[in-house]
Structures are given as C-alpha cells and as structure tokens.
Amino acid sequence: MDWRIVTTKVGIGTSRALSTQRAGTEAATSALAPLDGSADLLLVFASTGYDQRELVAAIASQAPEATLVGCSGEGVITRDACNEDSHVVGVMALQSNTIRAEACLVPGFADDSAEAGRALVRWVEQMGNGEARLLILLPDGLVGNCTDLLRELDDNLDIPVVGGTSADGMILTKTHQYHGTRVVSEHVAALLLCGDVEPVIAVSHGCTPLGLPRTIDRVEDGWVREIDGQSAWEVFKEYLDGDPEDLNADGVVHLCVGEPLPSALAADYHPHVINTPLKLDADRGSLFFPGGRLRAGQRVQLMRRDADEIEASAHACAERVRATRPDEDACLMLQFDCAGRGQIMFGSMARERTVTPVQSVFPESVPWLGFHTFGEIAPIGDRTYYHNYTVALCALFEGRT
Amino acid sequence: MSSIGELEDELERLRSDNKALHEQVKLLVRTEHRLYRSQNQIDRQLARVRSLGDYVLDCPSVARPEEILIGVTELVARHFNVDRVQPYEVIARGDTMRLHAPPAVEVTVTAEDREALEALSGPWLGTNEPGQVFSALFAALDAADAQPEPHPETGDAALIPIRVMGRLAWVLAVRRFSRRPANRFQEVPNESHAPFFMLMAGHIERALENAELNHDLRIQAEELAESNRKLKDSLGDLASTQHQLIQASKMEALGRLAGGVAHDFNNLLTVIVGTARLMLHEDLTPSLREDCRTIIEAAERGTDLGRQMLTFGRRQSGEAQRIEVHPLLTDMSRLLRRIIGEDVSLELRLEARNDAVQADPAQVEQVLMNLVLNARDAMPHGGAIVVETGLARPGDQPDGPTMFCLTVSDTGRGMDSKTQARVFEPFFTTKDVGEGSGMGLATVYGIVQQLEGHVQLESEPGEGSRFEVYLPLAGQPVVEEPVPSGAVARPTVLVVEDEAAIRRLVVRILGRQGYEVLAASDGESGLRRFVERGDIDLVLTDIVMPGLDGVGLVRLLRRRRPELPIVFMSGYSGDHRRGIGVADRKRMLDKPFTPEQLVERIDEALRTSV
C-alpha cells in the first residue's frame, strides 16, 4: 500500500464587484480562506473592465509572501460559474511543501518570439534545477508568434507546456500579463511548477470541415493575404451573413482554418489543428492569424464550429484526463478555453454546454480555475501547438507515478 | 465503355453539382451565422432582463431610494458599455429645477432643458453635442463629475426619467466618452435599448413608490409606538395620581379621626385641668394638693398630644399672616444647631427671591423643627442637613402656580417605598418604642395641608431623604386697623356650651372671678337667655354645637348688638372657624384651656370692646 501525505492546499476565489479594489480583495481573501490566509502562489485571471494595476496590487496585498502570476482574459471559469462579464476576477491560491512555483515575465515576445522562447528556456533550466515538471504559459494574445516560441521550448526542454494567451474582452487592442505587482503587455507570463507534481494535459476542438481543401497563396507576418487566388477576407465573407464591413466578434468565431496534422498525430487527436483570424485589414482584404504557423503554399481546410461536436469532444477530452489516474483526485484543474466557445457560442447556456460536460467528469472537491483565452497552448503527441477554438485541460496530481 | 466525351460531360455535371452544393453550403453557413447572431442578441437581452428580474426581486427588501438607485446603477454599468451612470434627485421649487447627487453635486437645469426633461415620456438616448437638447445639462453634469480627467465635449448620452406618484423625482444620467474598453457583451446604449430602459424605469418607479409607502408606514408605525408610549406614561401617571389620591384620602380620614378624637380629648382635659386648678384654691391637705398638681401635669402633657393631633387634622388654631420665611429660618437655625448635636452639620441655602408666605410663624417653625429633627434621627452616626429655599412648582403639578419651596435634605439612611408610603401617618414611627411619638411628620403634613401647600418626599435606602415643602406665596401685605379699647365694670357673661362639664367649669371659674355668669346648653337657648336679659356684656360660646352653632348664634346676636364682645372657644380649627371675623378670631380660646387663660381672654375681650 502506498502511503502519502497530502501537503498541497488550494483555494479558489472570485468576485464580480464593479469596484476594482473590492473585487481584488474579495477574490483574494476567498481564495486564501482555506489556506489560513497565506499562500506560496497566486494565479490570477481577470477581465479588462478593471484597472489592471490596482486590481493586481489589491490581490497581492492580501498575500505579500506569495508569487503572483496571471493575465487578463475574456472571462473566468470556476466550479461555480463561467463568467464573461466586463468585471470578473478569479484567484487560485496554492500552498504546498512539495510543489515549488516559479514565475517570470519574458519581454520581447512581440519583436522576436523565438528569442523570447530561448530566454524562457534559459530561465526554466536555471529555476527548474532538474525538478521542473510543467511550464504554464500566458503570452500576449494579440502579438507575437507562438509557433516560434513553442518551437524553442519543444526543442530544448523535456517538460510539458500548457497555457492560454491573454485576452481583452474581444476589443483586440491590448492584453495584460501579471507578475508580482507588475502589469505589462506584449510579454509572456510564465509559471514553472517543480517538485512532486505530475500534470496530465488534453485538448479538443469541435470544428468540422467546410468545402474542399484550399491553398494559402500569400502570408506576411501572420497576415494571410490570399487563399485560392482570392483575398482571404473575400473567402471568409462568402460564409458570413449580411456582407459585413469588418471582422466583428461574431465573424471571428464563426469560421476558422484547419491546418492538417500528420496522420500519426491525427489518429490521436483530430485531422486538423485550428487557426482563427483575430484582425482584419479591410483595405488589403487580409486576415491576421495569431498562431504564426500558417505559411504560403500550405494546404488548409476552411472549418466551421459545431455546437454539438464542441460539447461532445470537450467531454471526451475530460474523460481522457480522468482515465490517466482514475482512482486519484487532482489537486488542481486548469482550464484554458477559447473566447469563441463560451457565451458568444452558447449564450446563456455556455456553462451547461462547455464547462459542465468537462467538470462533471471530476469530483466537485477538485479545485478548478480557468479563463477564456485568445489562443490555447497544449501538446499533441510530442509537439506543443498553438490552438484556437479548443479547450485545453491540465490536471495537476500531487506525487509522481 | 464510356467515351472520353461522356466522361467529360459527367465531369462537367459533377462540377456543376459540386458548385451548386457548395453554394447551398455557403447559404446554410450564412444562415447558421445569422442564427448565431440573433441568438447572441437574444442572449444579451435575456441577460439584461434576467439581471433586471434579480434587481426587482431584491427591491422589496430595500427601503431607501438611494439603495434602490445604486442597484440600478450597477445593473446599467454591468450590461452596457458606459463610463458613468449616476442617479440625480430632481428638486423642483417654483421656477427652478436642480439635480442633486450626494454628497454635494448640485446642478441647475436651464428652463429649456427642464421643459424637455418634464416632457419626456420615456428614456432619451442620443449623442450629446453642443447646441442640441440637454447639451447644457450634460455639460453641467460633466463639469460636476469628480473625474481626474476633463471630459470630452461630446459623447454618447442617455437620460432615463423616473417618476414617483406621477412626479418627476429622479433622473438617471448615462454617459460614454469611448474611454472605457468595450466588452463584446456590453453594448453602447442606443434606441434599440429603449424598451429595456422603459421597463427598467417602470420597475424603479414601482420600487421607489413602494419604498415611499414603506417609509410612510414606518413613520406611522413609529408615531403609533410613540403614542402607545405616551399612553403608557399617562397610565403610569394616572396610577400615580390614583395612589396619591388614595393616600390623600387616607390621610384626610386619619385627620378627621384625629381631629374628632382630639376635640373630645380636649374637652375632657379642659374639665380635668380646670377642675384640678380650682381645687388648688381649696383648703387641701398637702398630699391632695400634690395629687392635684400631678393631675394637672399629666393633663397638660395630654394637651400637647391633643394639639399635635389637631395640627395633623388641620384643626389646630393659628392665625395665618404674611410672613417672610428667611429671617425666621435664620433665627431657627441657631436653636436647631444646638439641638441636632455637633456630629450633624446644618447648612442654610436661602435662595428664594420671594420668601413671603401666608402662614402662622409658629406653624412654619414647627414644620422646620420637625423636619430637621427627623433628619437628625435618620443620622445616628452624624451627617449633613441642608435647608434650602427656592421658588418652584410641585413635581406633581407642573402647570400649577409657582410656590415657595422649603427643602430639608439629609445624608441619612433613607427610606424604602413602604416606609415612604406611611411616613406622614399619625403615630407611625420606625423608632423604638418610647423614642418617638410618630407625630412629627404627621404634624408637618397637617400644617402644610392647612396652609394649602404640598409636601413631597424623595428617598432611597442608604441615599438620604429630601423633603420638599411647597407653600403658597403671600399677596401684598394688608395694613390692619387698630382696635379701639374699652372697659366694663361689672360684666355679665353668657356662657353657651353644649358640654355640661365644661359649661359648669367655666361658670365656676368666672363666678369665682366676680362675673355674673349665665349659662346655656346650646345656641337656641343661648339666644333666648340673651334676649331675656338684654344686658349681657360678653358672650362666651363654643363653636361646634348641635342645632344653632356658635357662629350662627353670634351672627344673630350681632344683628341686635353689633358691638357685643364675643369670645369663641373650640377644640377644632380649620373649616369650623369659617364665618368668624378677624377680631373675634384673635380672641379665640382653644381647648383645653386653663382657668387663667379663660379669665385673661375674657378680660381682654371686655377691655378691647367698644
């Protein structure tokens, strides 16, 4: 019989208060309550309705000794709610003598994502000290090239990477990354978990192919100019209602591009990895895809989201995580879910269609925190991918198998 | 086997079908997109209405209008992309209208904006630009807004009028300057939201009206509670008054009893003392002479007791006159300091601006003496006595006239409520047997009642006692006319007395003094004797007699001889003396009296009569 002392405590707190100070204080104190007021780590996700610096300072002041890391998001996911209000904040407080948490902000992500990746590798090697188990990334969701960033990590580290890019309520203007009381943009916020912890990660989407495969003709710095000889925007508009003049939130989440996976990987996942356009250059008819993976000459598949498939695949994804340690409860569940799969897709049924099917697989006692992202980061096979329209689940189990 | 041409035709047909199918797919996807957009619109409306429903459910428990409007402010801020939502209370007086927001924002509405505001039948949603309707109002509101940065001149704006009982009571002002980041579920207020804002305004109006009604109900409940409290107080006062009435009735009954007993007692004593004194003029053995003196001594002690009983029963004689109390108290204090002993201090605080009362000085002295001695007895181990004067109204007569108040307080052992209830009763005492007669405070009570005053007592066990004696203030002094003097050589005296023993005694005493004495046993027979003889020089009459009493007899006699000298004798005082003139009252002979007092009073009356 294996005897093990559970030494990790986790608390979750949220607030919807309109007052920034009150919201930060409420969420932090709720999260800290089960930990008797002190923590080693505070993981924070918040909407951009708040003054970001005031919010982070209010949260940090409740546990000055803790490492604080996080980012702005489209909404906050907890056990009790899936909330995409303009004013919502979620805080996870962790206290452990077996899990060590290190955090940092990596600059230069917008200018040279590969170099940011290399800097991150160096930091992980230095801080991990041979005990690194999981790297959680929270990059800016509007700039940078996640593919370049992740390539550097995959090539140089042998630990799993998971996370989501920061968001700003679909304003598509500015997102924020937090570390300590610092609040920045165009950075990567990173959280390294070391020690006696094992992550289990799974990812899924719910998109189905639309028409025949297409070929990307021209790409410049993430901007897809032409597909099959047409401007990218013209191709998309053929499937959008009402001849739209700009790429509003509804349009963003309606269509996407599927990048075919190698057959070996597709067997365990899906034939395509999803890419979604976030910005429109109407004058040039170009669409910006933030993942940075699309290139000229690439064969892609136009995809549409499918509500039933989204729900079913998310549930299956959770089942896969649960199946890895069926007799053991995770000490924490993290959920990185696409901003396009929540309320904008399912309206008032967002929680029932996207969150409940996932959470129902795990006992209610498992602490849960997540946020709606502009892009998800999760591995498929031995490579880490930047995704859109997916849910990435990460279960943290104390102790190693 | 198909020819190439057939295959090309088939290929072309398939291409055509594929294109058509692709167009159908596009159409379906566009339709799906439209459905999602509609669903989003419905979801946003649903979320707003759901929040409004939650707000409405919360409203019944909210009492203050400010709290109701804070809830609305949060609702609008949460669901719409706005920078400011502020409720303003509408204050309209005469030609001016102002919008007020706590703590100190106060904006005056121009006449033009006021007219437009009052004409609004629903929410106003528009862009505020200089020169347009409400531009002046929003400029003033923006200027009053306590934001660190100045507002742009233009911006989206909305005004939601809220009426209470038909009156424009509040205005909800909404502003957006494109400064706040949008959330994809937060829309900028526009005309499409008018139905929602109208619905919201309706709910606010009902909530405010309910709050106002609740407020009125609460006020009424508080008024009722206050009324109940006053009623309870009144009931308490009534109970207290009832208690006082019962106490007064009891004291009155005791007074009548004491007075009646004292009257009979005095008659007996008059006979005993008079007879014994007459016996002393006889040739007695030394032993009998000594016995006589013992009888007289004992009877005279009885006389003191009878006088106290009469005082309690308000039947003691005594001539009320206008006196100034302060000099009297000062004089008395010298005597009192010697009596109370060295371990008890006596302090006088004579602060009354007017110390003139209508009373017999001896009565006031008696009151002070008894109260001070009572205080001393309450402090066997020493203490302090304070005698104060002032002008005040009795505590139980707040609307009564101002009176002279004599207060005697001590630091003694005090009294419990049971003792206080009986302290003025005659013969009630807490002292050991033989140490007190129990008539001291009863005498005080009797004197004060006789003077138409009040006496009040405050005391707690261990906290000392405080007696407050209220006496009516005297009017202006009256100058009395001097009484002319005269003399009669061999007077004839008519004695009218229903008590045979006294009548016989008086006849004996006056006969011994050389008077010619006629006697009658009642008023009627006295009148007959007076008419029969016609040369009566003086009439000595009892006051209280069956049938024609002394006062009635004298009234009839004076009709015949107005100058007739009269001497009244009585064992009563107070009411029985009504109808007796001032000069006659001065010659009153109180029972019991000694033979010497009788003769002196008769001689005096004959000397001073005309």
- End-to-end separation of chain B in angstroms reads 181 Å
C-alpha-based Rg of chain B, rounded: 51 Å
Total number of strands of chain B: 18
Number of helices of chain B: 15
Structural class category of chain B: alpha/beta
Low-confidence stretches of chain B: 478-488
* Approximate shape of chain A: globular
Largest sheet of chain A: 9 strands, antiparallel
Rounded to an integer in angstroms, the radius of gyration calculated over CA atoms of chain A is 20 Å
Strand content bin of chain A? 35-45%
Q: Bin the helical content of chain B.
A: 40-55%
Query: Strand count, sense and closure of the main sheet of chain B?
Result: 6 strands, antiparallel
- The average pLDDT score of chain A comes to 92
Name the pair of protein chains with the most residues at their interface, and give those residue counts: A-B, 32 and 29 residues
End-to-end separation of chain A in angstroms reads 14 Å
The total of helices of chain A stands at 10
Question: What's the total count of β strands of chain A?
Answer: 27
What does this structure look like?
- Chain A is an alpha+beta fold and 401 residues long.
- Chain A contains ten helices and 27 strands.
- Chain A has helices at residues 20-32, 52-60, 113-128, 146-156, 232-237, 249-254, 263-266, 307-324, 343-346, 350-359; strands spanning 8-15, 41-46, 67-72, 76-78, 82-83, 89-96, 99-106, 132-139, 161-164, 177-179, 182-184, 188-195, 197-205, 207-209, 214-220, 223-227, 230-231, 255-260, 272-275, 279-281, 286-288, 299-305, 332-338, 368-373, 376-380, 383-387, 390-398.
- In chain A, strands 14, 15, 16, 17, 18, 19, 20, 21 and 22 form a nine-stranded antiparallel sheet that branches. A six-stranded mixed sheet of chain A has the order 1-6-2-3-10-11. Chain A has a six-stranded mixed sheet with strand order 5-4-24-23-27-13.
- In chain A, a hairpin with a 2-residue loop joins strand 10 and strand 11.
- In chain A, helix 1 packs parallel to helix 2.
- The longest helix of chain A is centred in the last third of the chain and has 18 residues, at 307-324.
- Chain A is globular.
- The two termini of chain A are 14 Å apart.
- By secondary structure, chain B is an alpha/beta fold.
- Helices cover 50% and strands 19% of the residues of chain B.
- Chain B is built from 15 helices and 18 strands.
- Chain B has a six-stranded antiparallel sheet, with helices on both faces. A five-stranded mixed sheet of chain B has the order 8-10-11-13-12, with helices on one face. A five-stranded parallel sheet of chain B has the order 15-14-16-17-18.
- In chain B, helix 6 packs across helix 10 (440-450) and helix 7 (325-340) runs parallel beside helix 8 (361-377).
- Residues 478-488 of chain B have low confidence and may be disordered.
- Chains A and B meet through helix 6 and helix 9 of A and helix 1 and helix 2 of B.
